[in-house]
Design brief:
The structure holds 2 protein chains of 2 kinds. Chain A is mostly helical. Chain A is built from 14 helices and 2 strands. Chain A is globular, with a radius of gyration of 28 Å. Chain B has a two-stranded antiparallel sheet. Classes of the chains: A mainly alpha, B mainly alpha.
Chain lengths: 330, 309
C-alpha cells in the first residue's frame, strides 16, 4: 500500500538535488547540508556570470563588423571622399583615371529590390491571408512546412535554377539581347524572399485577437470582408515589417544577383538592362584587388553603405514589429 | 439578406417560440458571398502556386542532378581541368566548415539564448542586445564576408583558411541559433520552473535539470537549421579561404573547396562547361540539407507529441 507513495517522495528528492547529495545530507547532518547549499549557490552565480558574459559576446560581433568596415574603408574616405563615392555616377575602378561612384550599384540594387518586392509581396501577403483566414489548420500546417522548406535551398542553387530556367525564357519573350538583366535577378530574389514574407505576415495576421474577428463576423461580414476591413488593418504594422524584412533580404542577396544581374558598369535605366548591385560588386571584386589599395578600401566603403542601409531597414522593421506585438499583448 | 430581415426573423422566432438557426450566409449579401468565393479561390491559388514552386524547384533539381550521382562522383577528386571526376574535396570542406561552425557558434549562441530567456532583465541594455541580434540576422552575407576577411584573415592572421571561413560562418549562424534557443526556452511553461524552484533548486540547477532537457529538441532543431544555413552560404567564404581547387583538407589552417562555391564557380564558368558536375553538386548540396532538415523536423514532432502540457 505504501510503496507508490514512497517512490514518489524519492523521485521528488532526486528531482531536487540529485540522489547522491541528498543521501549525504541525510547521513552527515546539518554542517554538510550547509556546505552543499553554499557550493550550489556559488555554482549558480558562476553559471549565471558565465552565461551573461557569453550572452553579451553577440553584440561584439555586430560592433566588430561596423568597426572593421569603418577601419578598412578609412583610406577611401580620405582619398576619394564620401560624397564622390555615394553620388558618383561612374564605376571604373581599374582604369588609369579610376572612378569610384556607387550610383550604378545603388541604382541596380534598387531596381532588383523593386522587382523582387513587386513579385513577392502580393503573392506572399495573399498566401498569408489564405493561410490565416481561409485554410483549415491541417492544410496550414502542411503548407507552412512546404513553404518554409524553401529556406533550406541555398541561394546559389536558386541562382543556378534561374540561369537554366528563367534566363532562356526572358531571352525568348522579352526584347533583350541577354537574359542576364535586373529583371531576371529580381524575380529570383523575389522567390528567395517569399518564405520570409509569408511566415512573418501570417504570424502578424494570426496574432490579431480572436475577439476582433468574431466581432466582425457578428456584424455580418464574410471572411474576406473581415480580412480586409478588420484583420489586415489591425495587422498592418506586422505586414509592413514583413515587407521591410523582405526588402532587407532582397538588398542583401548576393549570389543570385551575382549570377543573374549581368554586372554592367553603367547606371541601369530600367530592370530590362543589365545591372550591377552593391552585393554583386563586392562579391566579384574583393577577391581580386590588391590588399590595402584604394579600390580595396572603396569596396569596404561600399560594404559599409550596404551595412548601414540594411541596418536601418531592419531597425525600422524591428521597431514596427515590437510595437505591433505590444499592441495585442494582454 | 439585410439586417432588417434578420431582426424580423429573430422577432418571429421569439413570437412563435420556434427555434431556427441563422447561419453565417444569412448575414451576408449575395454579392459579398460571390466575392468571398472568388477571393478564396484566388488566395488559395497564390498559396498553392508557392507550394508548387517549392516542389518544382526540388523536383527540377532532382531530375537534372540524379543522372550524375554515382559512387565515383561523390568520392573522387576533380579531374581533367575540373570537367571530370568527383567532388569529394568539396564535400569534406563543407563537413569541416559544419564542424567548425558547430564548435564556435553553438556554445555562444545557446548561452546567449539562455541568457536572454532566463537571466536577462527587461531593461534598456538588454533591449539593445535584442535589437542587435535581430539586426545581425539581417546583415547581408557578403558583408559578413568582408568582415571575416578584414578580421579573421587579415587582422587575426588566419589567412585564407578553413579556420577563417569557419569563424565567419559562425558569425552568420549566431543569430539563428540564439533566436531558436530563446524561442525554445520561452515555450516551456512557467509552472515547471516554479515547481523546480519551489523544491529548492537554484536557478542553474533548474536550468540544467528541468528547463534545458525539456527545451533540447527545440534548441537542436534551431542549431541544425543554423548549421544548414551556414553550409549553404557562399558569399561569406568567398574571400576567407575557399579554393577553386584544393586537395582534401587535413587541417584547419589550409584553404579548402566547399560545395556552394564549387557549384557557383562551375555554374558561371563560360570556358569549360560541365553541366553534369554543376547539377550533381547542386543536388548533393541541396540533398544533404533537405534530408537533414526533414529528419530533424520528424524527430522534433515525435518529441513534441511525447512532451505535452
Amino acid at each position: 500500500m505504501n510503496k507508490p507513495a514512497k517512490e514518489k517522495t524519492n523521485k521528488v528528492i532526486r528531482f531536487q538535488t540529485g540522489l547522491q547529495e541528498s543521501r549525504r545530507v541525510v547521513s552527515n547532518g546539518l554542517i554538510e547540508k550547509i556546505t552543499t547549499f553554499r557550493n550550489t549557490r556559488a555554482l549558480d552565480s558562476m553559471a549565471t556570470v558565465l552565461i551573461t558574459v557569453f550572452g553579451w559576446t553577440a553584440i561584439f560581433v555586430l560592433i566588430g563588423i561596423a568597426g572593421f568596415l569603418i577601419h578598412s574603408s578609412m583610406r577611401a574616405f580620405d582619398e576619394v571622399g564620401i560624397w564622390s563615392m555615394i553620388a558618383g555616377t561612374d564605376w571604373f575602378p581599374t582604369s588609369s583615371d579610376a572612378r569610384y561612384g556607387f550610383l550604378p550599384a545603388q541604382v541596380g540594387s534598387i531596381w532588383v529590390t523593386i522587382v523582387a518586392l513587386a513579385a513577392c509581396v502580393p503573392i506572399g501577403v495573399l498566401s498569408a491571408v489564405y493561410l490565416s483566414e481561409f485554410a483549415s489548420s491541417r492544410f496550414r500546417e502542411i503548407a507552412k512546412a512546404i513553404i518554409e522548406f524553401m529556406v533550406t535551398i541555398p541561394s546559389v542553387v536558386f541562382g543556378l535554377i534561374g540561369l537554366s530556367v528563367l534566363v532562356p525564357l526572358i531571352r525568348e519573350y522579352l526584347p533583350v539581347d541577354s537574359g542576364l538583366i535586373g529583371l531576371t535577378a529580381g524575380l529570383i530574389v523575389g522567390v528567395v524572399c517569399l518564405p520570409t514574407i509569408i511566415s512573418i505576415s501570417e504570424d502578424a495576421l494570426r496574432s490579431v485577437p480572436r475577439e476582433l474577428r468574431h466581432g466582425s463576423f457578428a456584424l455580418g461580414n464574410t471572411r474576406w470582408q473581415t480580412a480586409y476591413k478588420v484583420i489586415l488593418p489591425a495587422a498592418s504594422s506586422g505586414v509592413f515589417a514583413a515587407v521591410m524584412l523582405g526588402m532587407g533580404r532582397a538588398i542583401g542577396e548576393t549570389m543570385v544577383v551575382l549570377m543573374l544581374a549581368g554586372n554592367a558598369g553603367i547606371i541601369p535605366g530600367s530592370p530590362l538592362e543589365a545591372a550591377r548591385t552593391m552585393t554583386g560588386t563586392i562579391a566579384q571584386e574583393t577577391g581580386e584587388v590588391v590588399r590595402g589599395s584604394v579600390h580595396f578600401a572603396v569596396l569596404f566603403a561600399l560594404g559599409l553603405v550596404l551595412f548601414v542601409s540594411t541596418f536601418i531597414i531592419n531597425l525600422i522593421a524591428d521597431m514596427v514589429l515590437e510595437r505591433s506585438r505590444k499592441k495585442w499583448r494582454r | 439578406m439585410t439586417s432588417a430581415k434578420i431582426i424580423a426573423r429573430v422577432a418571429n422566432m421569439t413570437k412563435t417560440g420556434k427555434k431556427e438557426v441563422i447561419t453565417f450566409s444569412d448575414y451576408s449579401s449575395k454579392g459579398a458571398r460571390r466575392v468571398e468565393v472568388v477571393v478564396r479561390a484566388f488566395t488559395a491559388f497564390c498559396c498553392i502556386a508557392v507550394m508548387a514552386l517549392v516542389v518544382f524547384l526540388l523536383g527540377y533539381l532532382f531530375i537534372q542532378g540524379i543522372g550524375s550521382i554515382s559512387w565515383s562522383f561523390i568520392f573522387d577528386s576533380p579531374r581533367d581541368r575540373m570537367t571530370g571526376g568527383g567532388i569529394w574535396p568539396a564535400i569534406v570542406g563543407t563537413l569541416w566548415l559544419i564542424a567548425l561552425v558547430s564548435a564556435f557558434a553553438l556554445p555562444v549562441g545557446i548561452a546567449t539564448g539562455i541568457y536572454l530567456a532566463e537571466i536577462a532583465k527587461q531593461n534598456k541594455p538588454v533591449r539593445m542586445l535584442r535589437v542587435a541580434i535581430a539586426n545581425m540576422a539581417g546583415v547581408p552575407s557578403v558583408v559578413y564576408g568582408l568582415f571575416g576577411f578584414a578580421a579573421f584573415s587579415l587582422a587575426f592572421g588566419f589567412g585564407k583558411s578553413l579556420l577563417a571561413m569557419g569563424l565567419t560562418l559562425a558569425c552568420v549562424t549566431l543569430p539563428v541559433v540564439i533566436t531558436a534557443t530563446e524561442e525554445a526556452l520561452k515555450q516551456i511553461p512557467k509552472e515547471q520552473r516554479q515547481a523546480a524552484m519551489a523544491l529548492g533548486c537554484t536557478r542553474a540547477r533548474t536550468l540544467g535539470k528541468v528547463v534545458l532537457p525539456t527545451a533540447l529538441p527545440g534548441i537542436i532543431t534551431g542549431a541544425i537549421l543554423g548549421l544548414s544555413r551556414a553550409a549553404g552560404e557562399t558569399a561569406p567564404i568567398l574571400f576567407t579561404g575557399v579554393a577553386f581547387f584544393a586537395p582534401v583538407a587535413t587541417n584547419i589552417t589550409q584553404p579548402s573547396m566547399a560545395l556552394p562555391y564549387h557549384l557557383y564557380i562551375m555554374a558561371t564558368q563560360p570556358t569549360t562547361p560541365a553541366p553534369h558536375i554543376v547539377w550533381g553538386t547542386a543536388l548533393v548540396l541541396t540533398g544533404i540539407l533537405s534530408i537533414t532538415n526533414v529528419i530533424i523536423a520528424l524527430w522534433r514532432s515525435a518529441k513534441r507529441r511525447k512532451l505535452q502540457w
